[in-house]
Amino acid sequence: MIAVLALLFATAFPSNSKTSWMRPESFHLTIGMPRAAAVRALESNGWHPKKGDAAGQLVVDYADDKSLTLQFAGERLTSIRFELFTILQDAPKAFEEERAFLRQSLGKPRQGTKKILIYDHKLPNVMAILSADPKSEQAQKGVGMVVVRYYDPAVK
């Protein structure tokens, strides 16, 4: 019974928020943690990381329109990239939702535009990007994207 309750609370509940899942703590991850611990944290919550395209990379397909990419240097987690693919017209709204969360939790970004936010005043650094240019190949297909990346800037 306890295991069933734990699984229930560990799984994602439906939400009106498009971006609330885009947080390292949602997956029990922290920048700098050992690779084995990161994989264990994902697998214990039912996620199945698979090898990414680049060396040291793992990818988790969160849903049809959501994924996260983990980058490791050696055996340490150096970057977590959350990717939301949505209808082109919904992408700016999702980005604004993320902008509000980041402003509330991290304050004013060092750099910010309508499509890019950079928080580099504390670790981990955070970058949020809106990709919704109607002339891009992706947008021609009606798809917009919001990417939020938590990373250690000392690791290239």
Protein architecture, described:
- This protein is an alpha+beta fold.
- The protein has one domain (18-151).
- It is built from four helices and eight strands, in the order ααββββαβββαβ.
- It has helices spanning 2-10, 35-44, 91-106, 137-140, and strands at 50-51, 57-63, 66-73, 76-87, 111-112, 116-119, 125-131, 143-151.
- It has an eight-stranded antiparallel sheet with strand order 1-2-3-4-8-7-6-5.
- β3 (66-73) and β4 (76-87) form a beta hairpin.
- The protein starts with a helix and ends in a 5-residue tail after the last strand.
- Residues 1-14 have low confidence and may be disordered.
Describe the structure using short key phrases:
156 residues; alpha+beta; single chain; eight-stranded antiparallel sheet; 4 helices; 25% helix; 33% strand; disordered N terminus
Strand order of the largest sheet: 1-2-3-4-8-7-6-5
Shape: globular
Number of strands: 8
The radius of gyration over CA amounts to 16 Å
| Backbone structural class | alpha+beta
The count of helical stretches stands at 4
Number of domains: 1
Major pleated sheet: 8 strands, antiparallel
Please give the share of residues in helix: 25-40%
Stretches where pLDDT falls below 50 for ≥5 residues? 1-14
Question: Distance between termini?
Answer: 45 Å
Helix-strand string:
HHEEEEHEEEHE
**Beta-strand residue fraction:** 25-35%
| Average predicted local confidence, pLDDT | 87
What kind of oligomer do you see? single chain
Summed up:
This protein has 156 residues and is α+β, with helices and mostly antiparallel strands. It is built from four helices and eight strands; from the N terminus they run ααββββαβββαβ. The chain has one domain.
